[in-house]
Design the sequence.
């Protein structure tokens, strides 16, 4: 009897995904691991991985120290107003405070017309805000910006 051909090595698994789209555990362990190291990011948005979406909102912030001081005072007065029972006067004042804060945060400063409206709302709520340190601070910041 003559010997038949010597059997060669049997073929191993073929590389690539299986019919169901998944890679075998052996194939996964052979792929190099990808790593990302980020030390520090300032003023930027970063996304890592597939199918990510990045949304970045940048605000101008106060353009100068006078606007920054007004913004601080507005925030303090809003916090103080939240402790009082709401009335038409406090709601109008709060709406003007929100508008001024938003304009300073997005545009860098509140326009003179917006500041004048805040001053009117502050005057209308004078009996309430005149007793609050934060109300006095807003009034002083407005005087500095409006020159009055």
Sequence:
């Amino acid at each position: 009897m003559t010997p038949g051909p010597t059997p060669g090595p049997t073929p191993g698994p073929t590389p690539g995904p299986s019919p169901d789209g998944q890679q075998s555990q052996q194939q996964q362990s052979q792929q190099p691991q990808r790593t990302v190291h980020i030390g520090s990011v300032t003023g930027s948005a970063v996304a890592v991985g597939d199918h990510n979406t990045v949304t970045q909102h940048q605000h101008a912030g106060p353009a100068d120290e006078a606007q920054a001081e007004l913004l601080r005072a507005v925030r303090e007065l809003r916090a103080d107003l939240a402790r009082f029972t709401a009335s038409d006067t406090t709601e109008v004042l709060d709406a003007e405070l929100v508008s001024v804060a938003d304009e300073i945060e997005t545009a860098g400063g509140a326009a003179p017309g917006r500041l004048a409206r805040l001053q009117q709302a502050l005057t209308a709520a004078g009996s309430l805000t005149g007793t609050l340190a934060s109300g006095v601070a807003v009034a002083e910041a407005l005087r500095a910006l409006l020159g009055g």
